[in-house]
Amino acid sequence: MEPMVNWSYEETRALIAVWSEEKIQQDLQVSVRNEKVYREVSGRLAALGMSRSAKQCRQKIKKLKQEYRKIKIGHRSGSNSSRTTVWFAIMDDILSSQAAAGKRSKIAAPLPHSQSPFVVDVDTNGEEQCLLSFKALCI
User: Fold this and answer.
1) CA 20 to 30 Å from 71, out of 85, 92, 101, 124?
2) What pTM was estimated for this model as a whole?
3) Which has the closest alpha carbon to 37: 49, 50, 55, 51?
4) 3-state DSSP: the chain helix, strand, coil percent, rounded to 5?
5) Coil/strand/helix, residue 135
6) φ, ψ for residue 128, nearest 5 deg
7) Any residues with CB less than 8 A from the CB of 111 and at least 6 apart, and which?
8) What DSSP letter does each residue of 14-37 carry, written as one string?
9) Domain segments of the chain: what residues?
10) Contact of 131 with 119, CB cutoff 8 Å
11) CA separation for the pair 110, 28 (Å, rounded)
């Protein structure tokens, strides 16, 4: 059994960025067993210098989705709770896009495997521009 290790903000942000890519989401949709997909997610994080197993990635996404649903249900039921998480808006963008698309046609432009989910581009004025589909993931 793997030891419990807390996820840093950067690790969680990278995990969500990789997990939200269209290719990953499509692979998760069509796979009966998703271990292979989460191994790919884990490998992508490893390329960014973040050591997380496929099982840890799957568990973290599962927990983020559970937290999101609890908050979403609370908001819908008119609860006075102002409970939220740092990741609520991002998860709402991703999961709402999935629901709106039915079987999910597109939520984000896929990033090439060679690119980090934290890609920035410098325009001709010397200003950095975030190239992520979910701008909330930009620093």
Assistant:
1) 101
2) 0.65
3) 55
4) 50, 5, 45
5) helix
6) -80, 145
7) 17, 21, 117, 119
8) HHHHHHTSHHHHHHHHH-SS-HHH
9) 9-107
10) yes
11) 14
Instruction: For the chain of 139 residues, list the mean pLDDT of each consecutive stretch of 10.
Output: 81 95 92 94 97 96 91 70 73 76 42 43 49 53
Beta-strand relationship, 128-130 and 120-122: antiparallel
CA angle at 83 for the pair 21 and 77, rounded to the nearest 5°:
95
Report helix angle 35-47 to 9-19, nearest 10: 130
Q: How far apart are CA 94 and CA 106, in angstroms?
A: 10
Structure tokens at 85: 């998480």
The strand pairing partners of 120, in sequence order, are: 130
Look up tokens 């991703």; give the residue: 94
